[in-house]
Specification:
TIM Barrel, 4-stranded antiparallel sheet, 7-stranded parallel sheet, alpha/beta, Immunoglobulin-like, about 30% helix
């Protein structure tokens, strides 16, 4: 039996008191969301408070970019639809445009990113009014946009661009904008031999997460310190196979972004809309009612694809009116909007995506007060006048009525808020002058809107009223 170590000498009372005072006065980590360590269980992890910045942000931009941007046909699931599903239009596309022996891997060198300019991207993101960006660091095809040590040369540093795309965008975003930098990461890979071997064992084996997925995730977080970690693609495997709770416990307790990082709900089969930081529930999710748990509507400007596709027609793209409506409804129901664009193989953001981003930024420049840092109100939409949505700032005693159609009569009837004579003030954001209003029986308000020409309108595609001291 080993001998016991000698006892530590007693500290002088004054020194002990000084140490205790230092511990008590030590400042908390900035932005800390919880002092106690989180256990690797969903009960513990789900209890972690969401960092406040995420709910305040309301609007982010998703960027789907990878080798699938080379064929740029049909969908970012091109490889799967061509090789696994053998969908005729994909098979025919390859027959008509590429040699018979052409493999998906041969698209890798053609993914050049020749015109990718991270500074230009960052400036456009800033102009969009977004408060965070999420880049696909690796999609289901398994091609990382950084020099992953675990990718066997199938990555953007060793193949194609020969550049660390993730690092370039991270530096540009953090040096040129006020956006939070986030990364999407697909847990599984369609055709990775280790994943396929694990799948054939009904996921009793864990070769793929041990050798590839987990080391890559640790590498990604440590190198680039994303404040959004957007997991996706469970491949039908449960979270126990991915060791999701173990990884998230490290992320929340020890990682360099432990105090500010937010995560979503796609950490294994059965987790979506149940576990994780905020809920996504489904692509293009729109609950149609208030959700008490923080959620995100991740959606695409191109209604049929997340990646760029050359076969898209103009009617496939959502108009700015439709996008503003998506943003307003999502925020009124308590969610964030994550709006996706898909750059081309050479790193160009096409004109239609740029236009939509800049249009959204122009709208938010005037009406952002009714979106950013807001909370839901007791009513999400007006029950009398269609296309009117509500947000609020309780501390300032403000309610915002966002209306998407300018009434022909020049009067906007609001059935939910009731004004207090002598106290309630109404202002059109971007206009600057108080607007007259009268009571609407049995409850509500009738606001007299200003008579403006189209060139005098403070914004297009939607307007917001600031209502103070309403009941």
């Amino acid at each position: 039996m080993p001998s016991r170590p000698p006892p530590c000498p007693a500290l002088p009372g004054l020194l002990l008191l000084l140490l205790l005072l230092l511990l008590l006065l030590r400042p908390a980590r900035p932005g800390a969301v919880g002092a106690a360590p989180f256990e690797p269980s969903w009960e513990s992890l789900d209890a972690r408070p969401l960092p406040e910045w995420f709910d305040a942000a309301k609007f982010g931009v998703f960027i789907h970019w990878g080798v699938y941007s080379v064929p740029s046909f049909g969908s970012e699931w091109f490889w799967w639809y061509w090789q696994n599903q053998k969908i005729p239009k994909y098979v025919d596309f390859m027959k008509d445009n590429y040699p018979p022996d052409f493999k998906y891997e041969d698209f890798g060198p053609l993914f050049t990113a020749k015109f990718f300019n991270a500074s230009q991207w960052a400036d456009l993101l800033q102009a969009s009014g977004a408060k965070y960006v999420v880049l696909t660091s690796k999609h289901h095809e398994g091609f990382p946009l950084w020099g992953s040590e675990y990718s066997w040369n199938w990555n953007a540093v060793d193949e194609g661009p020969k550049r660390d795309i993730v690092k370039e965008l991270e530096v540009a975003v953090r040096s040129r904008t006020n956006l939070h930098f986030g990364l999407y990461y697909s847990l599984f890979e369609w055709f990775h031999p280790l994943f396929l071997e694990d799948k054939s064992s009904s996921f009793q084996k864990q070769k793929f997460p041990v050798a590839k997925m987990l080391p890559e995730l640790y590498e990604l977080v440590t190198r680039y310190q994303p404040e959004v970690l957007w997991a996706d693609g469970d491949g039908g495997a449960p979270d126990s196979y991915w060791n999701s709770t173990g990884f998230l416990a490290w992320l929340y307790n020890e990682s360099p972004v432990r105090d500010t990082v937010v995560t979503n709900d796609r950490w294994g089969d059965g987790c979506i809309c149940r576990h994780g930081g905020y809920y996504t529930c489904a692509d293009r999710y729109h609950p149609g009612h208030l959700l008490l748990h923080k959620w995100e509507n991740c959606m695409t400007i191109d209604q049929l694809s997340w990646g760029y596709r050359r076969d898209a027609g103009i009617s496939d793209y959502l108009t700015i009116e439709e996008l503003v409506k998506q943003l307003v409804e999502t925020v009124a129901y308590g969610g964030n909007l994550l709006m996706n664009i898909g750059p081309t193989l050479d790193g160009t953001i096409s004109a239609i995506f740029e236009e939509r981003l800049r249009q959204m930024g122009a709208w938010l420049k005037v009406n952002g007060e009714a979106i950013y840092d807001t909370h839901t109100w007791r009513f999400q939409n007006d029950t009398f006048t269609p296309n009117v949505w509500y947000t609020s700032k309780p501390k300032e005693k403000l309610v915002y009525a966002i209306f998407l159609k300018w009434p022909i009569s020049g009067q906007l009837v609001l059935a939910q808020p009731s004004g207090i004579p002598g106290e309630t003030e109404v202002e059109l954001l971007g206009h600057g002058q108080p607007l007259p209003w009268t009571s609407f029986k049995p409850a509500g308000m009738v606001v007299q809107l200003p008579q403006l020409t189209i060139h005098q309108m403070p914004s297009r595609w939607g307007w917001a009223l600031r209502l103070s001291s309403v009941i």
